[in-house]
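Batch manifest line 347
LIGAND: MRU
JOB: complex structure
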Amino acid sequence: MKSVEWKDQVLHLIDQTLLPAELKIVECHTYQEVADSIKTMKVRGAPAIGVAAAYGLALAAIHFAGTETGKMIEELRRAKEVLARTRPTAVNLFWALARMERVWQDHRDKDVKTLKAVLENEARAIDEEDQAMNRRIGDFGKELIPAKARILTHCNAGALATAGYGTALGVIRAAQEAGKEVQVYADETRPLLQGARLTAWELMQDNIPVTLITDSMAGYLMQQGKIDLVIVGADRITANGDVANKIGTYSLAVLANYHKIPFCVAAPLSTIDMDLRTGREIPIEERHHDEIRRLGNLQLAPKDVKVYNPAFDVTPSSLIEAIITDQGIVKAPYEENLAKLFKGAGK
Ligand code: MRU
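JOB STATUS: finished
ARTIFACT:
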């Protein structure tokens, strides 16, 4: 089952707000529906958001009713703006939108029909390439996993968060496929519980042993010697190797460092933003206060209590043992080695 699937020019998404209670597919027929699904987190996870946004622009192109290329490009620009305003932190969204824009720029002298076809093809390519990149991340990353490993992960960086296979969970999948004995501890990941609802569900579907813990238990497990390695995904990595990921990631990195446990990040090159120098420049999304005050219909805290709800934090690269990308494993000094990686990949 794919979290993001393009069928008959309609985008099908697993509604991740309903899992694990209900496995429901929502259909997006317009770019506005795609934007709404990203904003409300029916689709979430940096690479999956990028793929969905690319299909959003394909939908904007397909449903353009006019005959003038210039007018179509105006409509695509409007759609791009709407899609870009959904969530600010994951750079894959902006990366995918920019890649689609380059395609319409390169074909601006072509007719409307041609433009529709090339944009649909580009969105499909972004989708397929993401799946292939995750396999490569898994292949590189499995080498870092001991033959018997107890791995802690945070949030959901799995098949649900990508076009398939996953980044952090892709590494775990690849290690298991290579015959290693892996056991995963999944942080529940307050406040939206991506670990409890999504990672636990996804790993159980694949028969990968998973034990759910609350976020506050991680330190205790490390102190008891129960964690060999931490692997997480990323929403944006800057040129110096700082990593924005789900809120709580930084605390895990500090804990892992104190306990001398390797802390690794898995992400494709589309998550690395070489235009930003350090993590301080990353825009951090703040979400609705009721995500903390309420749980569904249940009031958890006083209705009007003041709340602070940043959805992501930034882990400085000094706490990171390795960044596992689709082009290889990068270690410190990150600034130098990430630049080399991009040069080597011809980016
Ligand atoms: O708010 P979310 O659920 O979109 O946040 C997701 C994460 O933080 C993931 O770890 C990250 O996007 C990497 S997914 C391969």
